[in-house]
Amino acid sequence: MKKVSLILLALIVTVAYSQPPIGSKSLLHTQSARTLSKGFVTLYSEMNFFTRATQFVGSGQPPQNFHAANYWLVVGQTSLSWGILDHLDLILSPRIYQDTHYSNEYNLPGDIFVSLKMGSFGFMEKKMYGGFMLNTRIPTGEKHNYPFVEYASGAVEVGFTGLLSYYLDPYLPDRSFSAHLNLGYWNHMEAGRTVYNDGGKYYDATKNSSELQYALGLTYPTDMFDYRLEIEGIAYLNQPDPFVYSRENYAYVSPSIRFKALPWLSADLGIDIRVSKDENTTDYTLVADRANPKYNLPNYCAWRVHMGVNLQILPITTHKLTSAELEREKFKKRVEFFQKIVQEKDRTKDVQEELEKLKKEREQAEQELEQLKQILQEEK
Questions:
Q1: Is residue 153 helix, strand or coil?
Q2: Which of 25, 58, 210, 295 could hold 187 in an S-S bridge, CB 3.0 to 4.6 Å?
Q3: Taking the CA of residue 179 as centre, how many other CA atoms within 13 Å lie in the half-sphere pointing to its CB?
């Protein structure tokens, strides 16, 4: 009952959408090349936010009708991952944008991402894993093309991503240092569609824009925490039309930490720091005054704070384990047992070395005491 309550809570707190889908065995932005085991289902609920107070940019006094503004971004997503087969996952990520700075304010429901992930193909004695993802974005949201986030065209968008992962310890990959590389292609498929509506004036896309997506993630795990660092971004191959807000390349560095509270429950905390240029190439003669240059606003937020909860829904902890799962559990327990023996042995060795050192110091002190006694006797 407690587990069900936590799952419902994670669903309730998800009120917006975020970066590309967070699915099976992933970091904040980076997918690993490993997939879930067959029959496993996980739920990831993530929120992030950004805010900035604006000021008038220009010489002299602002006009009488000028009003200062606060811009903020509250985003999040729910991602449900299902291990269909041992090498195939289905990832369903409905997204909602809470505050788009439009009249409707809540873009509910948002777009839906669907991904098929093929992975866990090991090589180099299973220190390396390879994988592949097919992704699509279904435009169920009411509004698209809004500032501070990645470009959303309002069309059915498609893409694919190559995955590569390295694990220092192939026998206990989740307990060892790991590195993950993602390289992908994304096409917004918007040619001929209305991308922007400014008070009844419609702007149609003249071409399909496309981009190269990349991400590199590093993980250093301990018993209770995973320490992680990521670099992720995009580089446009075909830039969107001038009336699009997010038409520049971007790159972020993202340190984060994962707290592993229970075997089926973990929590994430991280921050995105933009390292790409603070630029804005949108032609504001073609769009409304929502992110006007007079406020000196870039098209991507300078930072973003992330909070997330990761839950394993299936299989439940009371299920009957298969023979293969029992063998894996026995192996893990044996490894943990021998690790404790090695640690205790190292501690014992350190204690023995300290005792030997104290023994030598005591013998040296006794020798010095004998020498002192002889000197005193000679003086008498």
A1: coil
A2: 210
A3: 7
Q: Kind of pairing, strands 178-187 and 210-221?
A: antiparallel
Question: Cα separation of 39 and 120, whole Å?
Answer: 15
3-state secondary structure at position 361: helix
Amino acid at site 70: N
Nearest to 159 by CA among 132, 193, 181: 132
Q: How far is CA 351 from the centre of its chain?
A: 42
- Measured distance CA(97)–CA(108) in Å, rounded: 7
Nearest to residue 119, comparing CAs of 256, 186, 26? 26
pLDDT average per 10 residues of sequence, the chain (380 residues): 42 39 82 94 89 58 57 80 95 75 65 94 94 95 82 94 95 90 97 81 90 97 94 96 92 97 94 92 69 63 92 75 64 69 70 80 80 73
Q: Are 20 and 113 in contact (CB under 8 A)?
A: yes
Tell me the pTM: 0.78
Residue with tokens 């985003």: 75
Q: Under a CB-based contact definition with an 8 Å cutoff, are residues 259 and 267 in contact?
A: yes
* CB distance 107 to 143 below 8 Å: yes
**Residues in contact with 289: Cβ distance below 8 Å, sequence separation at least 6, in sequence order:** none
